[in-house]
Amino acid sequence: MATRKKSAKAASKTSANSAFSAKTARVEMKAERQARTEPNGGGTIQSAKGKLGVMIPGMGAVATTFVAGVEAIRRDLAKPIGSLTQMGTVRLGKRTEGRSPKIKEFVPLAGLDDLVFTGWDIFEDNMYEAASHAGVLDYRLLERLKPFLSSLKPRAAVFDHNYVKRINGPNVKKGKTKMDLAGQLRDDIRDFKKTSGASRLITMWCGSTESYIEPTTAHQSVKAFEKALRENDEMIAPSMIYAYASLMEGVPFANGAPNLTVDLPVMLELSRNNEAPICGKDFKTGQTLMKTVLAPAFKARLLGLSGWYSTNILGNRDGEVLDDPGSFKTKEESKLGVLEHILQPALYPELYGNIFHKVRINYYPPRGDNKEGWDNIDIFGWLGYPMQIKVDFLCRDSILAAPIVLDLVLFLDLAKRSSELRGLGIQEWLSFYFKSPMTPLGLYPEHDLFIQSMKLKNTLRHLKNEPLITHLGLEYYD
Ligand SMILES: NC(=O)c1ccc[n+]([C@@H]2O[C@H](COP(=O)([O-])OP(=O)(O)OC[C@H]3O[C@@H](n4cnc5c(N)ncnc54)[C@H](O)[C@@H]3O)[C@@H](O)[C@H]2O)c1
Hints:
With 478 residues, the protein is of the alpha/beta class. The chain has helices spanning 4-16, 18-34, 61-74, 84-87, 103-106, 127-134, 139-150, 178-196, 222-230, 238-248, 265-273, 287-300, 317-322, 325-343, 349-352, 397-417, 449-463; strands at residues 51-57, 115-121, 155-156, 198-205, 253-255, 278-279, 304-314, 356-363, 372-380, 386-394. It folds into two domains: 51-283 and 399-463, NAD(P)-binding Rossmann-like Domain (Rossmann fold), CATH 3.40.50; 287-394, Dihydrodipicolinate Reductase, domain 2 (2-Layer Sandwich), CATH 3.30.360.10.
């Protein structure tokens, strides 16, 4: 829980940790030097020919809204609203050139018709039943998609009730050791590749939020992790077993939940060795999306912040899982980091050195997937005069998450086909989609949505050997 004390402590910790800051500054200066505005080559990108298999651990509200949505769009029953890959454009060259192709025409992405799906869940419901249970999509649309969705049945899951305390289901794998379970998942992956005819695969974690844990020695290297798998180490969560299995098969992995999962040295090592890109964590959908839009505005205008109280009510299964203190703590950590990284209290102590930041999530069944996120924001301006902002976002959780899943699937596949990106491990250019973006050790994450958007589009320009856009714009006045 972040309190005034915690913010102050964090600020002093940041300033005290000068060695860390110096290292961070060096990493950034190096990156800055390399970020030239002229084209500098983006390597080669293999074509997106063939089917792309999407494997989803956790076939609940987000997963079914995504898959049903893709099918509805393929059948021209709806539009891919909210998806950058489907509707977004990227400006190329000067503002006077009038070149703004659609992203999907600029870089070679898999087409929606090429996507094939499978998944795992602890419940036996097929995707039609799971989508009906989630109650996100209108039943008339679901009826039209019924034959397709009913054909998608979950594979047996790797599950540990200790990590997700509020749910239990029958569709679970059995194995003597966690290494056996990883082996069974690897068999599933190979089986899906063979039976679906997919030429490439992606794993997209849409499973429940697991209980909060911190990394241990078991997570520090592949060798230590494999030993721990064989010894059934309790610090290996189910999501890590899926990640291990995917990366061992050379399959990229995205983490939509706030779990540690791939945010560990072992996974970075595997990802780089096997050229299987990773990204995460925790989809940035509702309240945090708003936070990462508003907080940069306060900072840009040097408006102070004394408090930010965020509360949510939601009534879906995710809300039920998050009602457990262990799962909530994982989500809370993910949501709390945002303000500190954007506002940099160590640099602006008078403005942001004493913030009371609180996040609550309340399970309230009547609302189902239609979450309400309230924010009370106490800011101060000229001469310290206080002001308040209230945000009441009546959103639809999975409607906001589904286009993010689609974009991540297509961009991770692009990363895997790019000679420049596939061996990097963490795909920081995809921070745009996450509440708690992964970064290499010693580098703080960029949370500002607009910096994240620029980073993503500049990465695409770089891959296609187009000049990066800095928005300097002096050339228009020569
Ligand atoms: N919807 C959003 O806006 C949003 C935003 C950020 C993050 N998330 C995260 O995305 C995840 C999915 O959200 P949701 O609303 O679809 O939740 P959900 O509860 O509807 O679906 C999660 C599914 O995962 C399954 N599951 C749990 N553990 C599993 C395991 N080990 N293997 C296979 N399946 C497992 C559950 O049975 C359930 O069907 C959650 O972790 C949530 O916190 C969602």
